[in-house]
Amino acid sequence: MWPRLRKSCRTWSIVLSITLLIGILVVWSWKKREDENSRNDYVSLRLLNNQRDYIDHKGVHVVVGHYIGDSVDPMKAPNITKDLINKNMFDPRPFEGKDGNPVLVPAKDFYKMQQLFQINRFNLMASDRIPLNRSLPDVRRKRCIMRYANVGNLPRTSIIIVFHNEAWSTLLRTVYSVINRSPRQLLEEIILVDDNSDRDFLKDTLDEHVKNLKVPTKVLRSRRRIGLVNARLLGANHAKGEVLTFLDAHCECTVGWLEPLLEAVAKNKTRVVSPVIDIINDDTFSYTRSFELHWGAFNWDLHFRWLTLNGRLLKERRENIVEPFRTPAMAGGLFSMNRDYFFELGSYDDQMKIWGGENLELSFRVWQCGGSVEIAPCSHVGHLFRKSSPYTFPGGVGEILYGNLARVALVWMDEWAEFYFKFNAEAARLRDKQPIRARLELRKKLQCKNFEWYLDNVWPEHFFPKDDRFFGRVS
Ligand SMILES: [Mn+2]
């Protein structure tokens, strides 16, 4: 009897250990899958909305975001009336959107929510539930906090925010985030430039509201639609700060965002510096920290693209994750630049209309004429990314965007302009309509380098044709 018991004991212990082993394996694989899932979640969060990513034919990871969608006049959307558009429905609840968390609109309001979405092409109802001074997470790395803890005297900046029919809540949350999360002594003023909005609440109500802010804030207004470039010029012409900081009208700054930008510009006034642009979700207004190891560039159509850094640069960045790094191009919405340098360098091309292409124009001009375009990885600002544009483009989106891009190509890209026009018939059609003499004279006066120098030195990894690269069919 005893030996039999011992035998069954042995069997049982074998069964038990196998079960335990299987259990451990199951838990391990489940945990692994969960980790992968959360990583995937992170990637898909980063790429929400109008962002898309893919690996191109050369194996470069490409993120597509922040570009032009189909533009529809909100007045033409169903059930949208003038009264509705003119109504300020800002109705904050104390904890909604706290710490950058998503807003959950009650199910009973879904129909209304969808209706209001059409007005600004983001979830206006969600935005209107979030207080103007909502908290956001401190997304900085520890090394960033230490790096900028004692930066000493920095120059003061004017914050310039252009808006056209922006929602009250997004516009003022931008302003409040600047005030709440910048050292007061670094802010000279805030300048809001109204590019001919027609919403009632953006008029006297706004003027009255900004009078009570802790930082001197003024509203400049254009009586006709002048577009982003000329509205920014209007703001810059009135600015008193040593540094100009441009922001879109639907941003939220996080703590410590300003110091890295101002320090870089203070060290060398030819540096033009952008923050890392984090993502505010257009549906829930949740805040997602973005990836720091991207840089800005463009494709053959001159559309701005975020690219992940490749081998050499990635290694450099990993070794130094706090200092600003150079980028071929900037996204354009958010950056700091020394005011004198801005004007010395020819400010903006004032022949550019409404929106689009001005970021590449400024990037090429800065690089080719002796400056640098950089991203400060310790500076994080959230931007509301949308799937489509809520703006009207008088004259048509194509006419405006491709007209602007034709100017960029004609003034700055030398023989690569021909390459661009070959692939972009719409821009080619508009090329002869562009008065560019003043900009070519500027390029000559500033003794700027040519586009080949730019490709060779600023973006050696570019995918444009050169003597050493062949395109098309080899037969
Ligand atoms: Mn924007």
From TrEMBL:
Any keyword Transferase? yes
The UniProt similarity line reads: Belongs to the glycosyltransferase 2 family. GalNAc-T subfamily.
- Cofactor(s) this protein cannot do without: Mn(2+)
Q: Which CDD domains match?
A: pp-GalNAc-T
Source species, domain of life: Eukaryota
Source organism per UniProt = Melipona quadrifasciata
Any Gene Ontology CC annotation: Golgi membrane
- What's the main place this protein lives? Golgi
Transmembrane region positions?
12-30
Q: Which SUPFAM superfamilies match?
A: Nucleotide-diphospho-sugar transferases
Gene3D superfamilies named among the record's database cross-references: Spore Coat Polysaccharide Biosynthesis Protein SpsA, Chain A
Coiled-coil region(s): none
Keywords, ordered alphabetically: Disulfide bond, Glycosyltransferase, Golgi apparatus, Lectin, Manganese, Membrane, Metal-binding, Signal-anchor, Transferase, Transmembrane, Transmembrane helix
Q: Which GO terms describe its molecular function?
A: carbohydrate binding; metal ion binding; polypeptide N-acetylgalactosaminyltransferase activity
Write down the membrane topology.
Answer: Single-pass type II membrane protein
Limits of the Glycosyltransferase 2-like domain? 158-342
Q: Which GO terms describe its biological process?
A: protein O-linked glycosylation
Protein name in the entry: Polypeptide N-acetylgalactosaminyltransferase 3
Name its cellular compartments: Golgi apparatus membrane
The pathway where this protein functions is: Protein modification; protein glycosylation
Classification via PANTHER family = N-ACETYLGALACTOSAMINYLTRANSFERASE, POLYPEPTIDE N-ACETYLGALACTOSAMINYLTRANSFERASE 3
